Amino acid sequence: MTGEELIRIRVLDDQDVFAMRRLGREVAETAGMTAQDQIRVATALSELGREIAIEGLDDVAVVFLLDQDELVVSLTFTADGGFRPTTGVTLAGRLMDSIEADPAGGRVSMRKRLPPGRVRLSAAEIRARLDRLTPATALDELRQQNRELAETLEEVRQLNTELEETNQGVLALYNQLSAELEETNRGVVALYAELDEKSRQLREASDARKRFWATVSHELRTPLNSIIGLVRLLVGPGGDPLGAEQLHQVQLIGSSAETLLALVSELLDMAKAESGRLDPQPAAVDLVELAERLRMTLHPTGEAGGVALSVRVTGGPPEILADEVMLTRVLRNLLANGLKFTEEGEVRLDVTYDETTREVVFTVTDTGIGIPAEHLDRVFEEFYQVPGPIQVRARGTGLGLPYARRLTEAMGGTLRLSSAPGRGTTVVVRLPHGHDAVPVVGRVLVADDDAEFREDVRRMLTGFAARIDEASDGLAALEAMAAAPPDLALVDLLMPRMDGAALMQRMADDERLRDVPVVMVTAATSQHHPPNVRAVLPKHGLRRDVLLETVRHALEHEDDRG
């Protein structure tokens, strides 16, 4: 063990674990580390302290040393005393730059580099400052951790606001360019390079936000788990007895930490959903059993507030092929929202089957306060809550509706909301039935240069079409059609290399392709269309039920011609 000793402490009981954590943060601060690195050092010591408490090691010596540009923390204990490194050592290794564990030799050593470019104190100066520290209780340390978490959460919110403003600015610029491209039609070739650059910037900004969410959420989980573990040490068996008020305060700390941990978990799921990493696992779900289970779970909540909760499954198949966990979370969120914002009346879940679109429809209706028209779009923004007296009393994170919509879309469905002040709220979730034996259409070709739009169309057509092919421009679409003519083509009007109008003209001139029905996707609907265009769809805000009905109509029109 090399370096100049700064301070040492002996860990004999649970109280010393708190003192060790606090001392680690103070040493890191005095040595010139950033606030985040101070928390990392303190949390690493907490994790090792937890393992020390669990293993029941006696008389553990903790020594802090300054070794050139590194802070070294060395823990020594009785060799072969039964200590076995587990998750605590693993997590501590992630927080520090390096860790060496030698259970047989009775030693664990961790290192953390000091930040370059900062004025550093000598070992003697650090020792002098540490000697002036005043003792702190376990509750003081927990309060300090809570303050650190609150400050970190506020920084997260501020950064998220800045990122959202940046995204809105880039999105507004993208929409402006798109409108100009639609208006000038064929004269847009020179603008494609600029549009691609703006799209790239938008994707990078979106990716940065997703990485930010995932990274910060993981960083928050570490101290939260430490707080929950420390609270359990305080109130669990073997700890020093606490007074009634102390016990109440510690339990409040634990409850707040668990609430924050649930919020962080939702943030992680939101980040996964936005990056397309949610992977539904479809299985047969009994609709009656699901509805009844939700009623039994949420009934006490409604009963306590004098609000009736009812569920009803009518008509259609008794099962749906879907991810049961995701579907349960979606419906529980919607029903819980209804119960939260309904003071009298009822909250009802109706499950029906739409023969036209072959979708199972879940309708959640309440007689609550409703949502003003100016807030209907914003309720699907993360962390947004409609202002009002009930919202002040009803605690929430503002993630329920965005989270439900993300899960619904991941399962290939849609979620729509309608509401009016004083008239309650209705939320409609549509999911593909998933048990259709015969697809309505065989092969569909989607020709569009927007990869995200192609993915949306593929999701909407899943189960409706036997095969879905994609092409990113007109030339690629023409080559795919020449190899094997599709049963139907969805063609974007504006594409690079060869646009939609030129593609449809080439199809009309080709004897093999002239009878392929085309559904044109564009924002302009008043211009003349080639004869093989059976329908025109708006590109923005396209809904699954509208798309399926349009495709079915185009195919029926083709049958009538034949």
UniProtKB/TrEMBL annotation:
Assigned EC number: 2.7.13.3
Official protein name in the record: histidine kinase
Species the sequence originates in: Planomonospora parontospora
Localization in the cell: Cell membrane
Enzyme class: transferase
PROSITE patterns recorded: HIS_KIN, RESPONSE_REGULATORY
Start and end residues of each Response regulatory domain: 443-559
Record-linked CDD domains: HATPase_EvgS-ArcB-TorS-like, HisKA, REC
Gene Ontology terms for molecular function: histidine phosphotransfer kinase activity; phosphorelay sensor kinase activity
Phosphoprotein found in the keyword field: yes
Keyword vocabulary terms for this entry: Coiled coil, Kinase, Phosphoprotein, Transferase, Two-component regulatory system
Entry-annotated residues carrying 4-aspartylphosphate: D492
Record-annotated Histidine kinase domain positions: 215-435
Cellular component GO terms, alphabetical: plasma membrane
Catalytic reaction annotation: ATP + protein L-histidine = ADP + protein N-phospho-L-histidine
PANTHER family recorded: OSMOSENSING HISTIDINE PROTEIN KINASE SLN1, TWO-COMPONENT HISTIDINE PROTEIN KINASE
